């Protein structure tokens, strides 16, 4: 598993990830917004991600592969920075 640490602050769960592509991710349980910070500094937000899908993302062997296969093309997203 590639999760280095996990924090819960109110309705947001943040995870630090050891990955070739992803640095960290945070998930808001109320808005269902998944924010992913990539190692290259890019930040993307994915909309309407279910709790179940976030849990599967978090627990997957490769968060990057899971993001590409299950979230990226299935959810509206925007580049934040």
Distance between the termini: 27 Å
Unreliable stretches, pLDDT < 50, 5 or more residues? none
Biggest pleated-sheet summary: 6 strands, antiparallel
Strand order of the largest sheet: 1-2-3-4-5-6
Number of helices: 2
Order of helices and strands: EEEEEHHE
**Helix coverage percent of residues?**
10-25%
Counted up, domains total 1
Average of per-residue pLDDT values:
95
- SSE class: alpha+beta
Number of strands: 6
Strand fraction band?
A: 35-45%
As a whole number of angstroms, the C-alpha radius of gyration is 11 Å
Summarize this, please?
The chain has helices at 51-59, 63-71; strands at residues 3-9, 12-17, 22-28, 33-38, 43-46, 77-79.
Give me some keywords for this one:
single chain, 2 helices, 22% helix, 81 residues, alpha+beta, globular
How would you explain this protein's 3D organization?
There is one protein chain. The chain has 81 residues and is of the alpha+beta class. It has one domain (3-79). It has 2 helices and 6 strands, in the order βββββααβ. It has a 6-stranded antiparallel sheet with strand order 1-2-3-4-5-6, covered by helices on one side. It starts with a strand and ends with a strand.
